Amino acid sequence: MRRSVVDFAKFVLARPRPAMTPVRKIIHIDMDAFYASVEQRDDPALRGLPVAVGGSGERGVVAAASYEARRFGVRSAMPSRTAMRLCPHLVFVRPRFDVYRAVSRQIREIFAEYTPLVEPLSLDEAYLDVTENLKGIPTAVRVAAEIRARIREATGLTASAGISYNKFLAKLASEQRKPDGQFVITPEMGPAFVEGLEVSRLHGVGPATAAKMARLGIRSGRDLRGASLAFLTAHFGKAGAHFHAIARGEDHRPVRPDRPRKSAGSETTYPRDLQTPAEVEAGIEALADEVWGWCERTGAVGRTVTVKVRYADFRTLTRSRTAAEPVAGRAALAGTAVALVRGLFPLDKPVRLLGVTVSGFEAGAGRPTGRQPAFDFGEPSERE
Asked: What is the pLDDT of residues 29-58, one digit of tens each?
């Protein structure tokens, strides 16, 4: 008996062992009230005031709000009229996207000094994989602190950072110490941290999904973790596997630098529902004009045009058309988009949101990037 135990121990020790996968060190950097902070930096008279970047007209929308404005409940994608009711002394500033892009380039140059693995999400946020960083700094916490200090020195702006072992948790962590702070979620903390959150706080869970989860008795990360994979898949389809994983603090997505852009689009939620076909066509033409402006700036043109219509009851329809050749110009894009939306007339109900997207970019065409078009700051689309 003793001999067999010894022989088994020798066998176990002699077996080739699988290489241990190192714990990744992921940082999510998020600039604090980026557009509004740039405006307050460049105009000292705005400092300390509630500032909204966007249009102040009848149908204007807030693109960004300073922290002073947020104290009154002003938020991005909010109709300007609503923002003014919440904060009567709100100061509106027209956006200067050329300036925001220039500052964003400064920030990304700083990122590149620490790691080539940078995945931009927009002008003001990005993921960094610093598992092996270019400066040999031993901890991700020190890397994040140094990057934030460099950003402040170079731009006069503040950034918040989340540090964790995957992208999902790093993004959650960056929200914990805003503004101008950082927070770490270690592998030991991850699952318990998620369990303590409401499901609406989890990225990928939009309002409609959160409401559906509530009807199923899932209101917290703890509830979500208690649901089986089979149950989640039955009720949420392919997204069920994602929800099952994040409830356990799992996210295996790598940081992907220079992600090829698959589409470029703009959408707007209207403060007053559109009632007539003429209003809808005018909205589609305006959105097509914005999308073509991005295509001109980047040199990226696609073959597929998609329009999106969300009715007042939140029912959403899309229509697409793919041509043999890329869209020829502004008029062609607008013409195709209007023709697509006309296929939905007469309107079943008033329309609260419209969107226009171009996709199917040709390989190597122009300079498509991983960031969103500068104008694409409207209501985040739900994932249902």
From this structure: 999 999 999 999 999 999 999 999 988 776
